[in-house]
Amino acid sequence: MTSLIDPYIEQAGIMAPPDDRQPVAFEPPETRELDLAKAGITSVVWASGYRADFSWLDIAGPEGRPILDEYGMPRQDRGISEVSGLYFLGLPWLNTILSASLMGVSPDARHLADRMGLIGAAAVDTSAA
Fold first, then answer.
1. 112 in a structural domain
2. Can you say whether the dihedral through the CA atoms of 95, 99, 103, 106 is positive or negative?
3. Nearest-CA neighbor of 54 among 29, 86, 27, 97?
4. Which domain holds residue 102?
5. Cα angle vertex 114, ends 86, 128, to 5°?
6. Does residue 24 sit within a domain?
7. What are the tens digits of pLDDT across the range 11-68?
8. Which residues of 58-93 are buried (b: 16+ CB within 10 A; e: fewer)?
9. What is the DSSP letter of 33?
10. Is 66 contained in some domain?
11. Contact at 8 Å (CB) between 81 and 65?
């Protein structure tokens, strides 16, 4: 990002202080496989971020059908997949046109929390969030 910002600062003649941040040399460990049951993981909430790419998600549903449809999108109903404990959030039209936006994710998250059986999820008011 500095390759875009620094030339602009110089070209515009802006008197900006030097970047005094210390570089971070952390590389998180890469996990290629994970036994969810052994790791004590009972639910996964998938948040798609800025670009939907589920190509690495190689999971079959209960009848052996791939979890991804012919367009590469997860098979789900309001974020609930055919695979027990696998949920999705932030997908286009998960429930409404706003589902893939910050303004629409709150009702979808509340719905998933209710379906996941989280205590008090139905009582959480996220309308002000």
1. yes
2. positive
3. 86
4. 40-129
5. 115
6. no
7. 999 998 888 888 888 888 888 888 988 999 887 776 656 677 888 888 888 889 999 9
8. eeeeeeeeebbeeeeebebeebebbbeebbbbbbee
9. -
10. yes
11. no
